[in-house]
Amino acid sequence: MDKSELRQRLRRTRRALDEATRVELSARCCEFARGSRFYRRATNIACYVPFDGEASPEPLVAQALADGKNVFLPLVGSRKPQPLRFARLDAKTELRINRYGIPEPDPTHAQLIEPRWLDLVIVPLVAFDVAGNRLGMGSGFYDRTFQFLAHRRKWIKPRLVGFAFDVQQVPALQPSAWDIPLHAVATETGLVSCAPNRSNDQPRSDK
User: Fold this and answer.
1) HEC profile for 2-66?
2) Domains of the chain: residue spans and CATH
3) Closest listed residue to residue 42, CA positions, set 63, 14, 20
4) Residues 6+ apart with CB under 8 A from 193
5) What are 156-197's pLDDT values in tens digits?
6) Residue of 124, 180, 196 whose CA lies nearest to 148
7) What was the pLDDT predicted at 152?
């Protein structure tokens, strides 16, 4: 199965989950993400607004704000291709609908941060494997934005943690030359450590 076919199949799979199940499984994903060293050590955290049946990090966002952390949401901009920008989310943040139909902060009234100053990025995905390879929606925004990580051997920051349901894990994905691998993936049954040499979180034993 090529990437396009796999993407369509797994998008249908996650959309087929009923709302109650999606909420329950997403909450479990958030619990494992919050229990990780990535979260505990982070001050500046980027999340996303769920779309198309994605696992929702909204409980994690609420907890991060309660914990006094700074939370940021991505801005896709009006042209392609270009990197993502990240705007701070707080009680005064005004949201608008972007070209994909997803709410995002209005950049004219938002506090922006350079991606390299984020500590943790919660990344949406369609499919993943244990090597940290990720299949997204096909636009390449996250790979383009965090391309600088490919050239770092020290001070690897931010940490990229995928957010997904177990049904989105596949045996293997063939990465492209420009793909940036994930450090871990939070699912409803645990935190999958995709690159143990890059983190102190232990790989999950149930898969």
Assistant:
1) CHHHHHHHHHHHHHCCCHHHHHHHHHHHHHHHHCCHHHHCCCEEECCCCCCCCCCCHHHHHHHHH
2) 3-198 (3.40.50.10420)
3) 63
4) 183, 184, 199, 201, 202, 203, 204
5) 799 999 999 999 999 999 998 899 999 999 999 999 998 643
6) 180
7) 73
